[in-house]
Amino acid sequence: MTAAIILAAGVSSRLGQPKQNLLHNGQTLLQHTVFCAQQSTCEQVIVVLGANTDKIKPVDGTTTLYNNHWQEGMASSIRLAITQIGKDTSIENAIIMVCDQPFISAQLLNSLIDKHTETGRPIVACAYNDTTGPPALFHRSVFAKLLLLQGHEGAKKILLTHAEGVATVPFEKGSIDIDTIADYENLIN
Fold first, then answer.
1. 152, 13 contact by CB (below 8 A)
2. pTM for the whole thing?
């Protein structure tokens, strides 16, 4: 079984408003990310909220976790979600996603799962712009390493330190994310 973890706890300081609520193609960025996860073969969808929790509506059909330590950085959200799913031994994999990549799709998430099944690699990440990044699948055997992340470290640290165990799938538009008003204006135009 695979769980999708959507990291949506950040304060969006460079944007000045919750990026989770930005509209694109009739959905908020968070709704789009959840929809893709729900349409994939992931059996569970977890959303981690933190800053701006009062301004972001939970999305139906998800488990919402509230990260009271969101100021620490992304690592605290990853630890919270991995601790939660680690209790369920039927969950073999976690796909860690961010909510500001507008071009993700259910097919992309399924390709991560398929590549893991094909290769047996414990980590499958998306490849774009000569790097690897989210969304990325982590097998249960890597959960302990994710729990050691601190501060603003994201799962990218695991991708870099375990490069020999990483398989990749192409995600041409993976580098497009929304961090500033200019990013958002480029997206909608």
1. no
2. 0.92
What's 17's DSSP letter?
Answer: S
Q: Which of 99, 91, 95 is nearest to 169 (CA)?
A: 95
Q: Which tokens is 105 given?
A: 């799709």
Residue 47 β-bridge partners:
6, 64
- Residue 105: count other Cβ atoms within 10 Å of its Cβ: 15
The CATH number of 2-188, from 3.90.550.10, 3.30.420.40, 3.40.50.2000, 3.40.718.10, is: 3.90.550.10
3-state SS class at 145: helix
CA–CA separation, 55 vs 69, rounded Å? 17
Q: Pull the structure tokens for residue 81.
A: 């979600």
Residue 136, strand partner residues: 96, 125
Query: Per residue, what are the HEC states of 39-79?
Result: HCCCCEEEEEEECEHHHCCCCCCCEEEECCCHHHCHHHHHH
Dump pLDDT digits (tens) for 59-92.
888 999 999 999 988 999 999 999 999 999 999 9
